[in-house]
């Protein structure tokens, strides 16, 4: 596999997961447009890639507005001659319970994650279609968007919306040879570093040591670098047949998430009145009610704090 001659835009790539994606794309041969709101982080990311023999440039701007999407595309075209790959990774958190979440908390997260994904994909997809070029759209989701999570109304809505958009774009862009997929990473990040359950894994990673096998294998929880290979693979020609998918990855584990499908189907002649449901709903639904949120097994004794 090689990405030689390809050009990638990676939003939110000054540090963390986004930087790992950008570095792996560059390692595979792609030129990369780094994006971050932190000028120093963006400059450092470019320097890191260049020090390893790669090519990179930076656009310092907040993702969300159409103007930022236009700047990212312009940087790719003017610096490297075009674009082939877009990874939408930029994000922020404003975690609060429903009754404490403000309009600004909600709008900020939706604006960066959901609107930012939309504006960047629209800009790049339009360019690729007009140029008659195939391309790769890779959008970053989250287990929270798949399952929900306490205190993350805004984040769950955004990440679920991203996967919904990806499935739609896979249909709309298929004829143009442009794939659209979502990646659901499970990795040590600023968010997981504050959760006591993951403390042993995060601390091992910070010391440069391998995470305990319980986290890497049983939970599928790992480092940013563990996710980067999936990003590079989906960006390659070898993955031209994969589109509209949600792929989970972390630690030693990879998963293909299913699309939502009905688990119960029943019919009632004349339709389902309140009385009909009162008579039959318990039998129909109770044994098949779906769980919400993620549940984790107890930590092994040696990993407990």
Q: Order of helices and strands, N to C?
A: EHEHEHEHEHHEHHHEEH
CATH topology: Rossmann fold
Structural shape:
globular
Question: Tell me, what is the CATH class?
Answer: Alpha Beta
Contiguous uncertain segments of 5+ residues? none
Structural class estimated from helices and strands? alpha/beta
Give me the number of helical elements.
10
Cα Rg: 21 Å
Which strand order does the major sheet show?
Answer: 3-2-1-4-5-6-7-8
Compute the average pLDDT: 95
Number of domains: 1
Distance between the termini: 43 Å
| Helix share bin | 40-55%
CATH superfamily: NAD(P)-binding Rossmann-like Domain
CATH architecture: 3-Layer(aba) Sandwich
Number of beta strands: 8
Strand content: 5-15%
Largest sheet: 8 strands, mixed
Question: Can you give a write-up of this model?
Answer:
By secondary structure, the protein is α/β, with parallel strands linked by helices. It has a single domain, classed as NAD(P)-binding Rossmann-like Domain (Rossmann fold, 3-Layer(aba) Sandwich). It is 43% helix and 14% strand. The chain has helices at residues 16-27, 39-51, 66-80, 103-131, 143-147, 153-173, 199-206, 213-218, 224-234, 274-285; strands at residues 7-10, 31-36, 56-60, 85-88, 135-140, 178-185, 246-250, 253-257. An eight-stranded mixed β-sheet has the order 3-2-1-4-5-6-7-8, sandwiched between helices. The chain is globular. It starts with 6 loop residues before the first strand and ends in a 20-residue tail after the last helix. It holds the Pfam family adh_short. Residues 6-189 form the Ketoreductase domain. One of its GO terms (molecular function) is oxidoreductase activity. Keywords: Oxidoreductase.
